[in-house]
Specification:
The chain is α/β, with parallel strands linked by helices. The chain is about 30% helix and about 15% strand. The site of one iron/sulfur cluster has 13 residues, from α8.
Length: about 300
Amino acid sequence: MFRIRFHGRGGQGMKTASRVLGSAFFLSGYEAQDAPRYGAERRGAPTFAYVRAARAPIFERGVIRSPDLVIVADDTLPSVPAAGVMQGVSARTLMLIHSNESAEAWKHRLNLSGRVLILPTIGETAEEIGLPLVGSVSAGAAARLVGVIERDALVEAVRREIAPFGDSVARENERLAVEAYERMAEHAGTVVEGGEVEAKDYTAPSWIDVPFEEAPVSAPAMYAGATSVRVKTGAWRTMRPVVEEARCNRCWWICSTYCPDSAISVSADNKPIIDYDHCKGCMICVAICPSHAIEAVPERAAESAESEAP
Ligand code: SF4
Ligand code: SF4
């Protein structure tokens, strides 16, 4: 079974990418499953979509955890932990990144042992006209990399999926999808299909116990004024930002200013202090710290480390 994930930002057409690729697989005689996942539904927020394709009925459901191919449409995303680009990426995963930097630079930056390919970013044209061009480019590249989709099936899939946008948009998407398909010719068929996942391979999530709050705090009082201190939004967190003191250069303002919850204060000697009762775990501070001094630690691991501390 092929398992493919597309990562991008809202407005870049990741849903279109999965639909085009899913249709192209279907037209090539495959069973296909494609689905988008949105976080915050707004332009620019990280989104992803995935495609499964097999010659037999597909019973596997849910988000793909062990991808064979990951396509990254926006090269600012790998450094955003919440975007989940690196989830399940292993030595056999092929990564295709839309970027103007080299594959070697990305391999080094992401510490990858698998293969990395680069597609130059589309640039301002796509952004200006706000159409799903990046999605079609991504789908075109993926279609060639899996090696089982003919050019005609890709073209037909683009036409079907982009038709609602009008003829001229469909033509432009088709042109770019085919261009990406041709660019990947030397890597055709290099995506390695993963095996079937069996029930015994399932790993239960590491559940977090969310403490109950008193009803006046958790429900009705939410609508009253001045409750933000009483409501412990820290219970929403799945990842915890942890400051590594040795790397923090005590710039004193960047993380504390960017924190949308004002959960970072600064001590008299310029040390950032995170209020874990109110930090929601958005990881903005992790992404924004120029010296990479804030690490994203899974909440469960952070809790265990805390309880084992002397
Ligand atoms: S942004 Fe980074 S370097 Fe600056 S105070 Fe925060 S943790 Fe330290
Ligand atoms: S993770 Fe988000 S809410 Fe928590 S301290 Fe960092 S910026 Fe603030």
